[in-house]
Write a structure and sequence with these properties.
Keywords: Isomerase. By secondary structure, this protein is an alpha+beta fold. 52% of the residues lie in helices and 7% in strands. It folds into two domains: 79 residues, 3-Layer(aba) Sandwich (Glutaredoxin), CATH 3.40.30.10; 113 residues, Glutathione S-transferase Yfyf (Class Pi), Chain A, domain 2 (Up-down Bundle), CATH 1.20.1050.10.
């Protein structure tokens, strides 16, 4: 059997999502660090894995997969018993919409390349970065909070078991706290993230624990 290898960076939100998914599905893998700050993601070795020069890249089933949500959907579709995506079309749509609200709307404008560009335009780069992060993470999570306001939200973002939406929310809340975003307008999102953080699959995927690990029992 081909070894499963995750090429990731410890603070990458997208990598964090995939680490949670691998843990939840009890898929054994080896983690290989790609240091974004050192520019390793732009080196030929990594560009051969992912032409976009992004993390994560997941070597699994004899292929190299990219884009975190596409990876999570692939894992959900190919691993027996996965419930990261609901089977009912409308429920599946809601989980995808919640996931995209973070992965497609908040995350891209707060990504490393964008933020470095913002810093280069300012005479006070650190202040500019902090203000940028607080604005876009804060506004994005407030919109996400409004999306949670409905009967389909349960113990987790959708129903009473973690789905792909929770895998997106937890890394974003981590980033929000890192940048001192005011989460007072996001009580449901913050509570769900705390509930997720208590689960072994989420705890083992936390950036502080982002080292090679053994599979967890589901």
């Amino acid at each position: 059997m081909n070894e499963t290898i995750l090429f990731d960076y410890w603070r990458s939100s997208a990598s964090y999502r995939v680490r949670i998914a691998l843990n939840m599905l009890a898929i054994p893998y080896r983690s290989v660090a790609v240091d974004l700050l050192a520019g390793q993601h732009k080196q030929p070795e990594h560009l051969a894995r992912n032409p976009q020069g992004l993390v994560p890249a997941l070597q699994i089933d004899g292929r190299m997969l990219t884009q975190s949500l596409a990876i999570i959907e692939y894992l959900s579709e190919t691993r027996p018993g996965s419930d990261l995506l609901p089977s009912a079309p409308l429920e599946r749509h809601r989980v995808r919409a919640l996931s995209d609200a973070i992965a497609m709307d908040i995350h891209p404008v707060c990504n490393l390349g964008v933020v470095f560009h913002v810093m280069q335009q300012s005479s006070d780069p650190d202040a500019a970065r902090s203000a940028w992060m607080r604005k876009f993470i804060g506004e994005g999570l407030e919109a996400f909070e409004r999306m949670l306001d409905g009967p389909d939200t349960g113990t987790f973002c959708h129903g009473d078991r973690p789905t792909m939406a929770d895998l997106c929310l937890v890394p974003q809340i981590y980033n929000a706290r890192r940048w001192n975003v005011d989460l007072s307008a996001c009580p449901s999102a913050a509570t769900i993230a705390e509930r997720c953080a208590a689960l072994p699959a989420f705890a083992a995927a936390h950036p502080d624990q982002a080292t090679p690990k053994q599979p967890l029992t589901r």
